[in-house]
Amino acid sequence: xxxxxxxxxxxxxxxxxxxxxxxxxxxxxxxxxxxxxxxxxxxxxxxxxxxxxxxxxxxxxxxxxxxxxxxxxxxxxxxxxxxxxxxxxxxxxxxxxxxxxxxxxxxxxxxxxxxxxxxxxxxxxxxxxxxxxxxxxxxxxxxxxxxxxxxxxxxxxxxxxxxxxxxxxxxxxxxxxxxxxxxxxxxxxxxxxxxxxxxxxxxxxxxxxxxxxxxxxxxxxxxxxxxxxxxxxxxxxxxxxxxxxxxxxxxxxxxxxxxxxxxxxxxxxxxxxxxxxxxxxxxxxxxxxxxxxxxxxxxxxxxxxxxx
Length: 308
Ligand SMILES: C[S@@+](CC[C@H](N)C(=O)[O-])C[C@H]1O[C@@H](n2cnc3c(N)ncnc32)[C@H](O)[C@@H]1O
Ligand SMILES: [Zn+2]
Hints:
With 308 residues, the chain is α/β, with parallel strands linked by helices. It has a single domain, classed as Rossmann fold, CATH 3.40.50. Helices cover 29% and strands 21% of the residues. The chain is built from 10 helices and 12 strands. The protein has helices spanning 24-34, 53-57, 70-82, 119-129, 146-157, 191-200, 214-219, 223-236, 242-245, 267-270; strands at residues 39-45, 60-67, 88-91, 104-109, 130-141, 203-205, 210-211, 248-255, 280-283, 286-289, 294-298, 301-303. Strands 1, 2, 3, 4, 5, 6, 7, 8, 9, 10, 11 and 12 form a 12-stranded mixed beta sheet that branches. Strand 11 and strand 12 (301-303) form a beta hairpin. The N and C termini lie close together (6 Å). The mean pLDDT is 87. It binds S-adenosylmethionine and zinc ion (ZN).
């Protein structure tokens, strides 16, 4: 049976991978402030080691963590157990999700977008799984900005990045060399490519988006300044020079359409085979779809990566 994986899914199998930078606190605030106060089913897509899953759980009836890395997911599961947060843990490729269409109320996806070598496929798949009127909050780093120019220059001086002729990718979807290594390829898209993907897939952007960058960092220290900075960043979001100066964009979107009110009571109700979309049956430590695709469960982690 053929696995349906996107090529070049990054390897995040390192045991000590940690994110701890100036934007980490802000991401927790974004989940807290931008997302609706309650969702029946929320998914942390590309959850890594569950850094933001706890924040998402405070807004969720039921929480699902999805990632491709077993090491990351084991850490995430342990973190949720330690923090007493009930959740489901799925290993899957974001471009081939094991969910029924129109089933997920809220999606959070932080620091993942730049790993998609086919972002159109990934966004289309995520939107398929979202309920009409459901929300997605995510971030992306655009490629056409000052910070990428400096990055390119630094790499050129160090002798790398020679295949890239321009200071930054001007064409949509241009590949940027990875700053790490081939285990984690990175593809930054232009601002307008991402914006058009959002529109084409029936997502409506909220007016509450903002860039990070210096304003976002300073803002957390003072509430008056915070409001002013947020307001300015929101107004400037799609405008040059803001998007030239602040490459990291946080976007809240809503899926167009009317929700039909279908209830999904337990995980099995909203799962579907990622290969054939067939109904999923779960028994002890194995998963089988109506058309015979089998998947495994180990230590409470549902592995949808490689069907047998
Ligand atoms: C930089 S980490 C971010 C983790 C987490 N969202 C956070 O902000 O702390 C990127 C994560 O995305 C996951 N990932 C990347 N591409 C994926 C794909 N196609 N399907 C599933 N997970 C993916 C990686 O395994 C990794 O755990
Ligand atoms: Zn199947």
